[in-house]
Amino acid sequence: MTADPPHLYPASELHAPFAPGEPFELDRERCRKLLDVALRHGGEAADVYAEFALGASMVLEEGIIRTASRGVSLGVGVRVRRGDAAGYAYSEDLSWDALVRAAETAAQIAEGGASPPVDVNERTLPQRYVVETPSILVHGLTKREFLLDADKAARAADSRVTRVEASLNESYREILIATSDGHFVRDRQPMMRFGVRAIVEANGKRQAGSSGGGGRVGLEYFTQPGHSPEEHAREAVRLAVAMLDAREAPAGEMDVVLAPGDSGILLHEAVGHGLEADFNRKGVSNYSGRVGKPVASTLCTVVDTPDIANSRGAINVDDEGNEPRASTLIENGILRGYLHDTLSAKHFGIAPTGNGRRESFRCVPMPRMTNTLLLAGPHDPEEIVRSVTRGVFARRFGGGQVDIASGDFVFSISEAYLIEDGKITAPLKDVNLIGNGPEALGKVTMLGNDMAISDGIWTCGKDGQSVPVGVGCPTIKISGMTVGGTEIAAR
Amino acid sequence: MTTGLTNELLSLAEDVLGRLTRGGATEAKVVARAGRDLSVRVRMGAVELVEEAGTRSLSVRAAKGKRVATASTSDVTPTGIARAVRDALELCDLSQEDPFAGLPDPSMLAKEQPDLHLFDPACGEVRGAEAVQRAKRAEQAARDFDARITNSEGANFGRTAGAFALATSGGFRGGYAGSYASLTVQPVAADADGKNRTSYYWTARRFLSKLESEENVGREAARRTLALLGARKVATGSAPVVFDPDMARSLLGTFAGCIVGDAIYRRGSYLLDRVGSDVASPLVSIVDDPLIDAGPGSRPFDGDGLASRRNSVVERGVLKTYLLDTYSARKLGLESTGSAAGMTGTGAGTSNFVLQPGAQTPEEIIRSTKRGLFVTHMMGFGFNAVTGDFSRGASGFWIENGELAYPVSEITISLNFDQLLKRIDAVGNDLDMKSSVAAPTLRVSEMTIAGN
Lengths: 491, 452
Prior knowledge:
The structure holds 2 protein chains of 2 kinds.
Chain A: H1 28-38, E1 45-61, E2 64-82, E3 85-91, H2 96-107, E4 121-122, H3 140-157, E5 161-179, E6 183-202, E7 205-215, H4 229-244, E8 250-258, H5 265-272, H6 277-281, E9 302-304, E10 327-331, E11 334-335, H7 342-348, E12 356-357, E13 366-367, E14 371-374, H8 381-386, E15 390-402, E16 408-420, E17 423-428, E18 431-436, H9 437-442, E19 444-447, E20 452-453, E21 458-462, E22 465-473, E23 476-484, E24 487-488
Parallel strand pairs in A: 4-6, 8-15, 8-24, 14-22
Antiparallel strand pairs in A: 1-2, 1-5, 2-3, 5-6, 6-7, 8-23, 9-10, 9-14, 10-11, 12-13, 15-16, 16-17, 16-18, 18-23, 19-23, 20-22, 21-22
Chain B: H1 2-22, E1 27-43, E2 46-64, E3 67-73, H2 78-92, H3 121-124, H4 128-145, E4 149-168, E5 173-190, E6 196-198, E7 201-205, H5 214-226, E8 237-243, H6 245-259, H7 261-265, E9 286-288, E10 311-315, E11 318-319, H8 326-332, E12 353-355, H9 362-367, E13 371-379, E14 383-384, E15 389-400, E16 403-414, H10 417-422, E17 424-427, E18 437-438, E19 442-450
Parallel strand pairs in B: 8-13, 12-18
Antiparallel strand pairs in B: 1-2, 1-4, 2-3, 4-5, 5-6, 5-7, 8-19, 9-10, 9-12, 10-11, 13-15, 14-15, 15-16, 16-19, 17-19
């Protein structure tokens, strides 16, 4: 690392064109006017969402910074609601006429006379991702060293490394939300992610391994234990080498032990999506109508919380202007509630939980997760592994998916080992696990005391919209889950 | 909006190209896009969402010698454009010399730009009210089909119409307009065991008049949903697996990711060094053809400005070529196949990537399967492109004596992808060109099924 102070771009680079004093300033008065236009045809509620998102990325391949990129995404969306229906229009042109046209277009969802005028008031937000210097303001010459360091470390880690790729992706998003409920809020959301991928080759076999992390953090991320470019590089190589001699994974139902941290994807798929209230408003989720009923073993308490400082899933305000708060979804196995946006909260007659999120100004908000966690249990993680005669130990995951209607979910494991007679043994090829939400959680028979939040780069997709999320959990034992390998055991 | 908009975008692209070269770029490439989108969702007979927007974007690629950078923006005001130009020029100094970077040789640029009938004016003219009516009719057809359809995830109608222009400092100028419309219905039925079951059916075309009727789409979606009632697991074992066209399409998309030049030079594909060898059963032929009239993935030229050409990728099981853009071709010491994907980054992609239909009807394929699995849905991302290991969640039907005996769910299917393609022993005649990656019904002679 260099000792020179980083060269910084001026903070004015981050100013949104709709920020105070900028050419397309959207102040309270202008937002109020847009909301009045939006409600001209009798809509019940309206919101204005302005977004200025800066992105930057750098890619290293074969020892060189191959390309650097920047991007700007700017626009304003106007939504008008009437009952469960919404009209939505957005404009990338921030001229006043274009914004009024967008508001008029969205207003068409309603049919009737104008609603009474509204007023909006600014409120202060919690500060869950204070970053001293947004990384996007630091000159690339400083940042590219992280990629070059990772490349060197990966190549030095093992002679079987044949390729290294590394990337740094940053974004800085300013949003402004004004609603006919009176909200007027601004938030600035930094995000950074770093990743290394290594390919190793030996004896005619080839395998890839990746490691990465990040969050709503600045470059100080790299100084934290386990987060340096070198450590990510060595982890990517370790994983690729470990899986080089992986054997065929078993097929069929068996005990599964999930390592702490990344395994939180289980909660995200098996529980989280099914509890997003839009599905329950429509009655199409397998969790619909089950509040107050058991949906998991009594060991399980699942929460969704935006309040983990600098985490990928942290938000100070949701994308509808509501205050996000921690929700207990499952308490000792009993279903306690859903994740709401404004629309579903109104439908259920409760206060919004602040989970209305959207990918960008091009999208309408939906109930989404933030950081979804399974809280710690009473067991020693080693004792959990010892308790399994034959099963699978899963440490790293590629991704997952759920069928909301039936509750069936899958997640793919990229680092797994066989457990034989209480010991972790041979590495296994990539394999999928499949289960059904409440059934799988009902089979959680042991839960570790080693709760960990994943440093992984999780992005949740729903209806074509991607949002950053976080997951976390302790060591989990599921007594009986279908492992989708190729090796059929003798029966 | 066709020629007018295309020309407008071309002059914008040319203008920006000039700024980049004047600013010090030794090579530059500019892509400008614009379009109008409408999408509506109807649920249980009521409108849920009407979404409408006009979009514009600009992407630039600049090089100073062999140092390359890109920038993009949705802000096409003079300030926004100036920022993108400044960013690209400045970032070139951050990149390092890439000996393989650079525009294609001018002699290779497309000389002609055929009219492939990619734009339907009627598509762009569908208004909100009409879109809502179409979606309502389709959903109603599903709900009227059978009393067991008790709920709905809704029906979506969407259309997009827009244009695209590409200008490079190598002298290429090209542009075209395109449109696409789609209709999807997703009904829900409740099972006796309390599980909800849902399936869907969809139609999509560049030309509005070529869409399947709303009634067809709704009824087929209902039929597919009802068929899932009573689904159960099956015992772990191995058996033939039949993939319906949507699932076969998904397999083909997985294969596409393994034969594009980027995956090859990155050594990230199990198909490295395999051109000229068997990669699939002799029943399998795959063509990437950007010149299909009105095809969903058709384009008159590729993202590097090279002439579009038909590439025979797999012929009777033998891999004939990778799909390459200028950059990946140089990295591999090969010629571009005219497969550059549209944007300013490098990368090859598919156009209309089609597994050629066979002679058997899907009914014949199922009838000739004594016992096996018919897959109509897959879940998850269980594929390692480097090793070819494939394992995904699945649901569909159990086949007993050539008949669909009962629905199955919550199982996985797995087999190394190399083996999977080689074990294809039946190819259907039911190809539907509603999407740019398209395949008919396929059968794999044996896969592992994990269940109880």
